[in-house]
Write a sequence for this structure.
């Protein structure tokens, strides 16, 4: 009896297994599944049912990245959907060795932009594509669209030519396995990006909360081994996405003591912090963190941070420049810092933040503080995001908000002619039709930020939000600033995501990296044909807040740059 039961069970198992292995015909798959190549600058929503299919050919220089996006939608739910790529052509093995495949994830923007652009995106589902998930498979509900993202890193020594790849997806529908293929191609031009020259900084933090989010809820201590591990991971990620300026605060990273009426400074943590980025090849310049801030609300005057001790615990206060404690502290701190930077060989790449975003109401106090620092260290170079140009000749690297750069363009041209550097920044502003990194905007508006850099001669870009994640960034990307009464636009606080023990990229970060390379290609073309570079950039960026955002037109212009540079 037991033997019969065993034989029956084995037969049933064999039948079920055979059914699971049955595949669909090509016609059945085509009837059920839409599987199309879509331009990676096109945001695909979960409810998107029609795709403007493209020929998946990426035109790239050596030393950059080729990106592809495929949209998958099925009338039936798909279980355990996987994706893989292989190279079909027989030349140099580019695609097999240098590809990353991820599923694009979705998140919410619960608080819409208060001052939206004319082309603001508004998906019916309320869900926006942004994080690129590093997961081996996903399950897909019926009548729901899933984008698949491919990035191919192009080494600088890649022989020019066309490389053919194939994307294969596999999954299971109602117990039946299936597989589908789509080809794509990378055309590599005889043009090489040796190193990007646009100064790029995204402010970041590796505190207890961020480490907990990265470590699946596990608590970590700042400056523990785990802290330095995550800092190294962040440094590597920034290098991967062409960030070359790092904010590091010598005052808050220093161990400060006070004995016999003198301050003593130990910069060992600051040194290790900076060295981490040097070791990963990230560092081009150091932004010294702000030494001062507002002494009250947004419109109050600026003061300087000074340490004080209570029960053997050091804390910082923000006091006016006229305070004797401030002057006695900074008379020792600034010269000691500059001597230390020189000893480390970092003095030539060091920029010092003074106070953030001076405005007409507090620009005088900013100017006085900056002038005092320059008196203590005549060689120090200052950098700051500015809302006003009435701070005197105290800023060496001016970083106006994009709309202020627009309205005060003539002033910044004068400062550039006088030998200052001009960058620009975006944050929760400007809104309206200006380019920015908000999730609600078309993705091309993130990429052309750096065409704006080239068009108007700004040699750097700053953003405050690399990883200031919300409590659950995969479910909410907007926020509220209660003290200012402002909405934090979706995605403004971060362009990366924590996930799976890693720092994950986003489609916005991918677009930003491509824009940084675009800037470099335009510079290369300008060296060869200045008028051509200027004109092709003008055809994309008409004015500070007016652009051609047609994706096909943009692709044609970028390909034209590569063809010109190949001659």
């Amino acid at each position: 009896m037991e033997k019969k039961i065993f034989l029956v069970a084995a037969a049933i198992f064999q039948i079920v297994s055979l059914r699971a292995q049955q595949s669909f015909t090509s016609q059945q798959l085509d009837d059920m599944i839409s599987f199309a190549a879509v331009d990676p600058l096109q945001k695909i929503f979960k409810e998107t049912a029609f795709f403007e299919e493209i020929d998946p050919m990426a035109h790239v220089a050596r030393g950059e990245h080729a990106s592809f996006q495929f949209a998958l939608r099925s009338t039936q739910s798909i279980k355990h959907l996987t994706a893989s790529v292989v190279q079909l052509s027989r030349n140099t093995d580019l695609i097999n060795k240098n590809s990353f495949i991820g599923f694009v994830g979705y998140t919410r923007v619960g608080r819409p932009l208060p001052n939206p652009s004319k082309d603001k995106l508004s998906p019916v589902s309320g869900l926006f594509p942004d994080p690129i998930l590093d997961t081996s498979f996903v399950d897909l509900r019926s009548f729901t669209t899933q984008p698949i993202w491919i990035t191919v890193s192009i080494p600088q020594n890649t022989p020019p030519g066309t490389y053919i790849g194939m994307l294969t997806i596999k999954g299971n529908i109602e117990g039946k396995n299936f597989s589908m293929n789509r080809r794509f191609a990378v055309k590599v031009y005889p043009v090489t990006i040796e190193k990007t020259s646009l100064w790029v900084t995204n402010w970041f933090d590796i505190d207890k909360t961020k480490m907990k989010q990265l470590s699946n809820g596990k608590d970590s201590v700042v400056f523990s081994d785990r802290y330095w591990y995550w800092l190294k991971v962040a440094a590597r990620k920034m290098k991967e996405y062409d960030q070359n300026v790092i904010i590091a605060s010598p005052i808050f990273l220093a161990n400060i003591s006070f004995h016999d009426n003198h301050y003593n400074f130990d910069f060992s943590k600051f040194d290790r912090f900076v060295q981490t980025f040097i070791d990963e090849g990230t560092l081009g310049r150091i932004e010294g963190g702000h030494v001062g801030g507002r002494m009250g609300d947004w419109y109050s005057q600026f003061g300087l941070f000074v340490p004080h001790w209570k029960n053997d615990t050091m804390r910082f206060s923000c006091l006016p420049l006229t305070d004797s404690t401030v002057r006695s502290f900074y008379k020792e701190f600034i010269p000691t810092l500059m001597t230390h930077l020189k000893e480390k060989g970092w003095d030539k790449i060091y920029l010092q933040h003074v106070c953030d975003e001076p405005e007409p109401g507090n620009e005088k106090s900013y100017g006085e503080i900056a002038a005092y620092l320059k008196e203590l260290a005549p060689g120090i170079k200052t950098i700051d995001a500015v809302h006003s140009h009435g701070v005197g000749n105290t800023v060496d690297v001016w970083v106006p908000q994009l709309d202020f750069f627009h309205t005060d363009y003539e002033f910044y041209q004068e400062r550039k002619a006088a030998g200052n550097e001009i960058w620009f920044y975006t944050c929760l502003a400007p809104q309206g039709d200006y380019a920015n990194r908000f999730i609600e905007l078309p993705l091309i508006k993130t990429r052309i930020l750096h065409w704006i850099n080239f068009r108007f001669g700004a040699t750097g870009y700053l953003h405050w939000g690399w990883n200031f994640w919300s409590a659950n960034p995969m479910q909410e990307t907007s926020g509220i600033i209660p003290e200012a009464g402002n909405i934090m636009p979706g995605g403004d606080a971060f362009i990366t995501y924590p996930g799976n023990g890693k720092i994950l990229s986003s489609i916005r970060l991918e677009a930003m990296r491509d824009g940084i390379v675009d800037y470099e290609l335009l510079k290369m073309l300008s060296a060869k044909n200045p008028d051509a570079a200027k004109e092709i950039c003008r055809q994309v960026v008409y004015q500070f807040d007016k652009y051609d955002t047609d994706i096909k037109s943009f692709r044609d212009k970028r390909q034209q740059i590569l063809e010109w540079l190949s001659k």
